[in-house]
From TrEMBL:
SUPFAM superfamilies: Acyl-CoA N-acyltransferases (Nat), Mss4-like. Coiled coil: none annotated. GO terms for biological process: protein transport; small GTPase-mediated signal transduction. Residues 165-184 are annotated as: Disordered. One of its GO terms (cellular component) is cytoplasm. InterPro entries: Acyl_CoA_acyltransferase, GNAT_dom, Mss4, Mss4-like_sf, Mss4/transl-control_tumour, SNAT-like. This is Acyl-CoA N-acyltransferase. Residues 167-183 have a biased composition (Polar residues).
Length: 345
């Protein structure tokens, strides 16, 4: 079973709520309004497990994890009821999988992916959750430690708190920064400001599969040039990056023959959609007349195809994720695969 991990969009909240209603007793399940609050306040913490539809035309939600942030280091009614932006504790509210997909390691794999993404951002110190006793082994397999019985009362059964401390990606100020004379102090607050800047994250990218009508929802057919253009800024699809690659309205949407961008059988991150084998067609963003119109793009060394043409593969210049597309060596046309970029929607 091939599972795609991506953020749950606003129009998928009813699907998530249906899964929750089937998975929790009535006195424990969250309301749809609660789901809307969590997703609106912390969309980057609402991760879903999806089964991709045929030909990348849609997807089906089969499980999710959703959280909010709190400055507290333990779970209380208050920390579970409101979101405090910029806090270091990720408070998980729900880990839920549709009944027909349980006992297939979906929950465990989803939790591991969730933890990996949180650690990759470097923004958080810990993850907190409460669970019933019988689910303790699941969370321990995902790296959580048992804390003890929780004071939180929600429903008729007791809850137990579990915790996972996240790997720190920060660094301490150097004792003698390069080029600084001994005894010369940094201006007050400068290092802290630089640290805050280094932890700043880019916009959250939506993958093409998160749009119910796929490419139809990301093209602007009313553009002044006549040809459909990209309705949204195009972003690096990696959640921890989100760097802007191209501004809205710059690229033209084109359906043309697919191009093999990697060797057959290669594996690549979930955020990079699969391309059909040539000569089948694929959806592309055509960028012209030169690379200067990009906000951020990287190029590989020329790669010679079986037909003798030399291509350069395109990648995110910030995190090197790719290939996102291609261009002919020395050419003036640059092609980004519609399902290999994110959308700032």
């Amino acid at each position: 079973m091939s599972i795609l991990y991506d953020l749950v969009s606003e129009n998928e909240l009813e699907d998530a709520h249906r899964i929750e209603s089937r998975g929790y007793p009535e006195d424990e399940a969250g309301s749809l309004e609660t789901f809307k609050y969590r997703q609106s306040q912390a969309p980057e913490l609402f991760l879903g497990a999806f089964l991709p539809g045929p030909d990348d035309t849609g997807r089906s939600l089969i499980g999710f994890v959703c959280s909010t942030l709190s400055p507290d280091t333990t779970l209380t009614h208050e920390s579970m009821s409101k979101h405090v932006p910029g806090s270091k504790s990720v408070c998980i509210h729900s880990v839920c999988v549709a009944p027909e997909h349980r006992r297939k390691h979906v929950a465990l794999d989803l939790l591991k992916e969730y933890v990996r993404r949180l650690e990759e951002t470097g923004q958080y110190d810990r993850i907190l959750l409460i669970a019933h006793e019988e689910l303790r082994p699941l969370y321990e397999k995902a790296g959580f430690e048992f804390v003890g019985r929780s004071a939180v009362v929600h429903g008729a059964r007791p809850w137990f708190e579990m915790r996972k401390d996240l790997s720190s990606t920060g660094s301490a100020p150097p004792s003698n920064p390069s080029g600084q004379a001994q005894g010369q102090a940094l201006p007050a607050g400068l290092w802290e400001a630089l640290e805050r800047s280094s932890r700043r994250t880019g916009p959250v990218a939506r993958l093409l599969t998160s749009f119910p009508h796929a490419v139809k929802e990301v093209i602007d057919s009313d553009s002044s040039g006549g040809s459909p253009t990209n309705k949204y800024d195009l972003l690096c699809p990696r959640l921890s990056c989100g760097s802007v690659i191209l501004k809205a309205g710059v690229a033209q949407w084109v359906e043309r023959a697919s191009v093999q961008l990697e060797p057959s059988g290669s594996t690549f991150p979930d955020c990079l959609g699969a391309l059909p084998a040539p000569p089948a067609t694929a959806q592309w963003w055509l960028v012209t007349p030169n690379a200067m119109v990009f906000e951020n793009i990287g190029f590989s060394r020329p790669v010679q195809t079986a037909g003798g043409t030399k291509l350069k593969l395109l990648a995110c210049a910030e995190c090197d994720l790719g290939p996102l597309g291609w261009s002919e060596e020395g050419g003036s046309q640059f092609w980004l695969a519609c399902n290999r970029v994110g959308y700032r929607a």
